[in-house]
Structure formats: structure tokens, C-alpha cells
Specification:
By secondary structure, this protein is mostly helical. 56% of the residues lie in helices and 5% in strands. It has a four-stranded mixed beta sheet. It is elongated.
Amino acid sequence: MDKQEFKLSPTTHFIATAQQRLFSSDLEIVLWLYQPMLGAAAAAVYNLLHSLAQATTEKLEIKRLLEQLAIGLPDFANSQSQLEALGLLRTFQKKAAFDEQVSFWVQRPVQPETFFQDDLLRSLLLETVGEPAYRRLYQHFFKTAPDPATAGTEISKSFLEIYQVNQTELSNAQVNDLKLQLQPPAVPLIKGCSLDFAFLKTLLQRSFLDTTQIWQHRRFLATANVVYGLDELSLLKLLENAADMQTNQVDFKLFAQLLHQNNRSKNSRSSETNISKPAENNKVASAAVQADDQPLLTACQAYAPLEFLQTLKDEEGSFVTNSEQHLIENFVQLNYFSPEVINVLIHYMIVDRGMTSLNRAFFEKVAADWKKKKISSAVQAIQQVRQVNQPKSPVQQTNRRYSAKKIVQKEKLPDWAQNDFKPVKEANYSAEERQKLQQKINKLTRKKS
């Protein structure tokens, strides 16, 4: 079954479990580092599932969680999505003939050392809490180390000074390879990620790079694939360029800089490329999309989001800002939409709305509306945009015109109605002038008669 079709209900059965032992210290990490990004509700969901995973393996109903947390089903579903996006929860569903069951696999949070080395996690935390709070959180986990020079001479015992290891047993352990082959925790899938992680791991093992260190940043590599369209070989090349040749460790801060530089140089070489060119390689048209929208649909399905944005900016003679890059990278991490849907949203803002750059507030507002309407493909997104942009009918335009603010036209009032009107005073005539005036009136009267 398609996971988009599966919906939780209060009567859905679930089992909470964990792949590895969970500790109380994990809850402290979630409280300090993850809760600012999750919110109180999602953190409470994690704490409860953490407790259930430790205590019981029996099937329960979702309504037990809702009653315990005192939240509704939509809030629980939203919290579930946030936990999955941040790697704290994996969800599996199984539908039988008369029963639906969900398995919640509670994941351990990454340790603070790894958290503050993960560019995506620390960037999202920094954006959420601000720099002063970010520094306080860092100092909460990492105290300033004392200077050994001021502590005197170290007299700590070494391992071999206290313990003796039987050389025969050590040789047997090396021959039999008794070390546990622990599988690293799986990374939550990011919509649109096309990386073959098995192939990528093989490439890493054949290179000089430290595979274990890189494997802790798989979510970042998946994001680079979705946002920038990089394949396994391209990622390996960038990782090698960002690695320290002495330690074989990758500097992921340098890797991010090379990633952005590589994207800018790539787009500068192809700045004259028309965004409709991918349509030449994809002739499959969707019956649900108008013919005029087919090139847009093909382009949205062919481009990575940042490539798509850069191409639109090139056509406008502009450039992609750092804030736009961070917006797309962080939004891809939320795992709400596939890249093709994100591309339609970018096109809607830059082309249809005529915006010079991606406004974060507007971007999130439209994305929230689309998620509420369960838009999951570029076809649906384009149809939604066309519905919004559809011109009004003549009747609607007339009603809109008459419902607009009326303009009051001021008419000129007669003089006597003006507020500042003052009657004209009659002239004072002398007796002689009055006599002459009366004589003229008498003459006129006689002529008429």
C-alpha cells in the first residue's frame, strides 16, 4: 500500500519498540537539542513512545497515546512526521484483512558531538533558537577543558599497567573476528532521494576516506542529492576534496562550501540553458495537465530544486541568495514534499507571482496549504496553481468591482449652502440717489403701459 493512502485512526493498533537500548541520557539530549525544533507536543510523543518501547511489547490502540498525551489525532500525526524527519522515529505499517497495525521504532538521538557536526541539524537549531541560545546549548554539553599544564604532572595508570591480556586469546580473537558487526541506524528516507547507499558505501570503502565518519552524515548526503541533484560519484569526488589527507576525515563545513561553489560554477556554465529543454527528453504527457503546462511539468520532474531555482534566476538576470539555499535545504529535510512539488512552488513564487526572491513566510504558508490539501505530485501542484490563477468570470469581476471601495464624488454646492457663506450687505444710498433711481423706474413703468 502507498504510504500516502494509510491514515491513522484512534482504533489503529501499534507496537512501540527499539532497535537498541535506550537510556535516560537520550531523553536529556532530546530535551535540550531536539525539543526547540520539535516543540513540546512532539517531544512528549517521543518520551511516551520511549517509555513504552522499554516497558512492553503488547499491541495497543492509538487512542491510548492520545488519552495519555491529551492531544488530538492531527497533532499526533504532525508530531510523528517531525520525529521521523529528525531521525528519532521510524514507522512501519501493515494491513491485514481485518486489522491495521503500525510499528513505531524509537531511535536514539545522535550524540551531542555528532549533532553539532551535522550541518543540517545545527543549522536548523541555530535558525530556531538564535545565536545566543545556540551558544548556551553548546556550552551546556561542552565545558571548557582545563589546561593540563596548570594541573601538574599526570599520574594516571595506563591499560597495560593494570590489566594483563593473554596473548593466545588475543590471537584467537583476531583470527575468529569476534567483534560485533553492528549495523548503523537507518536514516529516514527523504522524498526524492535517488542515492544507492549500498553502492555509495562500496565506493567509500574503496577510497581513502573514513567510511564510519561519513556514514554518520548520510542524511546530509541525501539532502545534497535531492537539492543539488548530485549522484554517488559526484558526492564521492566532493567528499575527497573536503577530506584531510592525514586523518582521512571529511570537513563537512568545507564540504558544504564546495557544494555551494560547485553549484554556482555549474549554473554559470549553463546559464543560457532554457528551462524547457528537458522536455525534449521526456515526451510523456499527463492527461491531467494542459498542453501549455507540459513543459513546466517535465522541467519540474527533471531538475533538482536548487538547479530549477537557479535556472529561473538566470532567466531573470538574478542569482540565488544564501537564505534561499538554506530555505530549500531545510525544507527538503522536513520531508513534506517531493522535489517536483517543491519546484512547482518555486515556479509559482518566482514566475507566477513575480517575486524577486523566495520569501520564507509566503513559502511556508503555501506549503502548509498544499500539505493540508494532500498535494503529493507536480501534476496536483500545477492544477492547484492554475486554479488559484484562474481569471474571474465577468459576473465575478462585476461583483468584485462593485464590492470595492466606493469613490464618493463631491458636488459643488451653491454659495448660499456653503458653511462660510456671508450675505452681501445692501448698499447705503443717499436721498438724492434714491430719488433719481425712482424716477428711472417710473419712466420704465410708463413705457411698458
